[in-house]
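Help needed: design a sequence for this.
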């Protein structure tokens, strides 16, 4: 019988390496479980702390049959607050059936069907399944949900509000539709890795009111930090695509659009806006003399914020006013730039244009609505064509939103107006779009802002 060979140094090293990796994984898992248990222990009692002034809840319990119609009505309001339709509707003929593509640095996600269809939707989900998804980011089968679904914010919603949303979704027409499969690169298609993402970027637990603040402020905090999930667009992200909590509401880029700073800094944010202007922007998409909503924000206004109650309008305003101002080096407000054009039109008369000319292109494509002076047409009427002077888009340090508006136009339907600006992306080349944008920023906005045709091409390529 041959004696077995003694293990070599290489074998010992391999065994030690495997043991070390196993120990590291076990420790990471143990830390996560300890963190999860600790947060669970802290958060459970909060759901039982019914604070109507902050949460805006009615006295009826979710299982009270007599209160069911009122519960569904409340759930519809809260679903609008969360703008569920925006992400979960790819085709207007299939509302809430999902399928909308969301591009991320790691690949493409498709939103799920949340109609009560039993096969392709959430018809077989229990209330507990739904609540676990909203509060913990875990699906019915125990799979971890990708944080493109903002459970990081939704976790703060009370059980009562989550169940109200669930009650409303149960009343929708079931739509049998299976969205496409996600297109994520390895290893980002491994859902179990989200355990580690959550460890660094997710604090599970319900909203806790600040006893030192007013009920109005706390109600605004509950909405903004929870169902309205404003941070998801207006807060910069770290390398893991988690939110940078130290730069809350200071602005970020989404699909080529800049979600501007909404801290109360007077130069960089909304500190120079009146409460009336801020409420008007949330409800109509227009803050006269400041801004007009376009791109993703126009969707938010159309699908969500225009339906806010007067109480919630004031609460959100109060909360945003109470945040830490973030200047980010900005010393002059975006809406303070610009002057009317005086003689550009007359200068062009009889002139021979031999190259791409921003002034000529502006007069040909934009002046009929925005006036050749840039002052707009219609003053402050609901259907007015906005002034390009004292406009936060033309006065921004980057002309990206101006460029995206030229490329994609504006479509915003509210109770007060149906606003439409045509898209010029199919009509104008990258050189022409750049020429118009540079003319507008130089004449009506921040003259330091400029864009190249190659940068226009990059923005044009951004999936919308």
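Sure. Designed sequence:
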């Amino acid at each position: 019988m041959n004696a077995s060979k003694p293990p070599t140094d290489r074998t010992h090293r391999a065994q030690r390496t495997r043991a070390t990796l196993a120990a590291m994984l076990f420790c990471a898992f143990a830390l996560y479980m300890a963190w999860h248990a600790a947060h669970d222990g802290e958060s459970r009692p909060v759901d039982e702390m019914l604070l109507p002034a902050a949460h805006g809840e009615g006295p009826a319990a979710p299982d009270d049959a007599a209160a069911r119609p009122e519960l569904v009505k409340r759930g519809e309001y809260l679903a609008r607050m969360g703008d569920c339709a925006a992400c979960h509707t790819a085709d207007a003929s299939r509302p809430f059936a999902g399928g909308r593509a969301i591009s991320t640095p790691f690949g493409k996600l498709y939103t799920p069907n949340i109609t009560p269809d039993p096969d392709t939707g959430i018809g077989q989900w229990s209330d507990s399944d739904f609540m676990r998804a909203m509060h913990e980011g875990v699906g019915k089968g125990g799979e971890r949900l990708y944080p493109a679904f903002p459970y990081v914010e939704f976790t703060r919603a009370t059980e009562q509000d989550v169940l109200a949303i669930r009650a409303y979704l149960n009343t929708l027409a079931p739509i049998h539709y299976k969205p496409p499969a996600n297109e994520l690169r390895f290893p980002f298609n491994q859902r179990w890795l989200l355990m580690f993402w959550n460890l660094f970027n997710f604090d599970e637990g319900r909203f806790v009111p600040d006893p030192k603040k007013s009920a109005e402020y706390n109600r605004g905090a509950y909405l903004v930090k929870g169902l309205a999930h404003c941070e998801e667009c207006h807060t910069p992200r770290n390398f893991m695509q988690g939110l940078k909590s130290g730069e809350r509401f200071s602005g970020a880029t989404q699909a080529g659009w800049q979600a501007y700073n909404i801290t109360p800094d007077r130069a960089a944010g909304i500190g120079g806006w009146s409460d009336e202007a801020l409420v008007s922007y949330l409800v109509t998409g227009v803050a006269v003399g400041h801004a007009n909503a376009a791109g993703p924000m126009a969707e938010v206004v159309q699908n969500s914020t225009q339906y806010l109650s007067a109480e919630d309008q004031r609460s959100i305003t109060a909360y945003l006013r109470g945040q830490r101002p973030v200047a980010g080096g900005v010393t002059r407000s975006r809406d303070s730039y610009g002057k009317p054009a005086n003689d550009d039109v007359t200068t062009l008369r009889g002139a021979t244009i031999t190259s791409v000319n921003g002034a000529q292109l502006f007069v040909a494509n934009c002046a009929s609505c925005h006036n050749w002076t840039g002052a707009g047409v219609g003053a402050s009427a609901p259907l007015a064509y906005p002034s390009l002077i004292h406009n936060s888009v033309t006065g921004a340090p980057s002309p990206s939103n101006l460029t995206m508006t030229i490329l994609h136009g504006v479509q915003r339907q509210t109770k007060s107006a149906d606003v439409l600006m045509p898209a010029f992306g199919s009509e104008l080349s990258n050189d022409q779009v750049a020429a118009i944008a540079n003319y507008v920023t130089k004449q009506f906005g921040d003259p330091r802002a400029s864009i190249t045709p190659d940068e226009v091409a990059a923005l044009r390529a951004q999936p919308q």
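The first helix runs from residue 9 to 48.
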